Fold Helix-turn-helix type 11 domain-containing protein.
Amino acid sequence: MTGAGLNEPGFESSTFFRAIFNKHSRPATQKTTQKILEELKKNPCITRKELASIIGISQNGIKYHLDNLKKTSVIERVGPDKGGRWEVRRDL
């Protein structure tokens, strides 16, 4: 889990065994965002599907991060959805 940028789970044991999974922490989100920006710089025409495959998260997760980056004016979509490209306007 650490290799994937996730928090380590907690474990409890008594009569039963229990694994406790925590939500993503902020650093994992920042790490994912940095990876996305790096890939956009390498290939401005990359698709969400390709990003999801490279980064290792769902296409919905990629959409969430891209939307946040667009809202904060870090990236901009230039051109149409099909055939357009991403422009990284500034680094985080």
About this structure: Strands lie at 10-13, 17-20, 75-78, 85-88. The helical segments are 26-42, 48-55, 59-71.
